[in-house]
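Following up on my earlier thread - several people asked me to post the actual chain instead of describing it. Fair enough. Here it is, all 391 residues.
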Amino acid sequence: MLRIGLTGGIGAGKSTVSEMLVEHGAVLIDADRIAREVVAPGEPLLPRLAEAFGPEIIDAEGGLDRVRLAAAAFADAASTARLNGLMHPAIRDRTAAHFARHAEAAIVVHDVPLLVENSMTPAYHLNLLVDVPAEVRLRRLMDSRGMDRDDAEARITRQAEDWQRRAACDVIIDNSGPIESTRDRVRELIDDRIGPFAANLSQRRPAPRGRLELTDPADKDWAGEAERVMAKLRHGTDAEFAVEHIGSTSVPGLPAKDVVDLQLLVPDLATAERLAPRLAELGYPGGELADHLGEGGSEGKWFHKNSDPGRAVNLHVRTEGSVGARFARAFRSLLRTDAGERERYLELKRELIERIGEATDTEAETTNAYADAKEPYFLRMRQRLVPESFA
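Reply from S.P.:
Thanks for posting it. Predicted structure:
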């Protein structure tokens, strides 16, 4: 199952986008609907709310009087905490039941208005933001919902700011223009990313890579993308292991292949093997491999690649204290601080990409030839940065 988190500020049009995703075969789980379900007449939560906040929160028909509940629950911080302590577990359990009911679905979209505010994004393979500037949302709330300006502005202010949502989400869907533009964007997203991602995930296979080329870092947010991926990996592995951004994309200003390199540190290779199925479920299938240390030496690791065609990731699962892990950190620090070495490495990459690109045909051939061609340089750097590993 490909799990997608969908969010957007009030008035952004999340419901419109969620309907489009359903039209393309996704299953929708609506957080607002679940919040209403758990307080419906006959649900066990309703009498517990009445016990906590008084019988007057139940209306004449036996349903919840939301206005009276709000007046009682938001009177002070303790009352709000009491409400959250009752509501959140019920919503969590009902949401889990909905996901379990659709366990065989290829794509499940969870529409959550406060996805970013509640720090929920690491729990999903992809997070989609329906993005509309606050001033446009304000006008929509006033025109389509009949809100007065003060109420609309207050509701927008209580939510995350636009930049916070953009930083936390993987995909931005601009819904500020004509509806057909949004429909085209969703269709493109399904065809190019969501559909292939779901298929790759079900088959436990990596997404194909594009041709070997260097990308201008000014056009990319590699640090932000790496942080989102690392947050998902930490969440998916119960924050048991350190995850680090390494490689060229971790060096500000350095042109690089558009591939985020990460390393996840485990106590031993048995743990790496045990983690492999879970990493595949998170969208990173892989297998056992080795770091070449030069002079015929090697060091075991596990290597995983992305199932998401929209974000290329190399995930190196290495043991703590290994030569590979120490070298990755030391080389990153060197490139961040030594402009001369940074320029020499960049020139080497440019030369190799030009030469190898002309001599190879397939993606695998090109990638392997490029990695092999850099080994003499890396051997010299390992001797310089991790000299004790050659003793």
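The chain has two domains: 2-203, 217-390. That should answer part of your original question.
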